[in-house]
Amino acid sequence: MKRLPLIAVLCLVFASAQAQQMPADVQKRVASIIDGMLDRWVVQMDSWWHDGQHERLINMTYFLIAFDPTNIDAYENAGWLLWSSNRDDEAIAMYERGLRNNPNRYDLYYELGQYYYLRKKDYARARGYLEQAIKYPCEWFVWNTLGHVYARLGEKQKAVETWQELLRRFPMMPIDQMEAVRKNIRDTITRDSSPSSGANQQE
Fold first, then answer.
1. What does the pLDDT read at residue 19?
2. Residue 6 placed within a domain
3. 120 closest CA partner among 142, 96, 91, 140
């Protein structure tokens, strides 16, 4: 049974390579078959996630991203599973592979920034990745996290400016989070201690 995923991968590689030499309509059918196989893998991986079969999930991730290197969720999920299992080097390698394959999206910059911020408390390194992340269209919480990183580094003015920019860019963000960001700005201005740490739900 352990050989089946590898056999499936080899078959798909062969089919994909051969399709390049086939008529357009045949190429389209082969692509459809490959897409169907990838969809089934995603369903299986979701089942393994819920069943707690994380090692199988990680292994299948390598197969999945070989065929779909733009699958951001695959990198994110496998990276989290790896570092939460104390396999930090593998997690970083997974995130960096995702970055190489998706250099013009914010997602993996954010994941690495979160990793260094929350896991390693390496705020200087986290800053570098998060500053890259906001160069691309991203969610409000990316700016929020960067504001917290600046605060942790003692760069109060940058933290305040980042949160103010967040409020300007995302006027439709959740009201409770908007109020939390405003509180962070007030607290950072009026006291020396930095706001509390957190992820997407940061205050």
1. 46
2. no
3. 91
HEC sequence for 48-84: HHHHCCHHHHHHHHHHHHHHCCCCHHHHHHHHHHHHH
Question: Do residues 50 and 94 both lie within one domain?
Answer: yes
Task: Decide if pLDDT at 202 tops 60.
Answer: no
- Looking at the structure of the chain, the number of domains it has is 2
Domain residue limits at 39:
24-103
Nearest CA to 108 out of 94, 90, 127 is that of: 94
How far apart are alpha carbons 57 and 44 in whole angstroms? 9
- Express each pLDDT in 56-94 by its tens digit: 778 778 878 888 899 999 899 889 989 988 999 999 999
Asked if residue 42 belongs to a domain, the reply is: yes
Question: Does one domain contain both 135 and 98?
Answer: no
What pLDDT sits at residue 4?
40
pLDDT digits (tens, 9 = 90+) for 120-167: 999 999 999 999 999 999 999 999 999 999 999 999 999 999 999 999
Burial classification of residue 87, based on how many CB atoms lie within 10 Å of its CB (0-12 exposed, 13-18 middle, 19 or more buried): middle
In a domain, 74, yes or no: yes
Tell me the C-alpha distance between 23 and 12, whole Å.
18
Would the CA dihedral through 89, 96, 55, 3 be positive or negative? negative
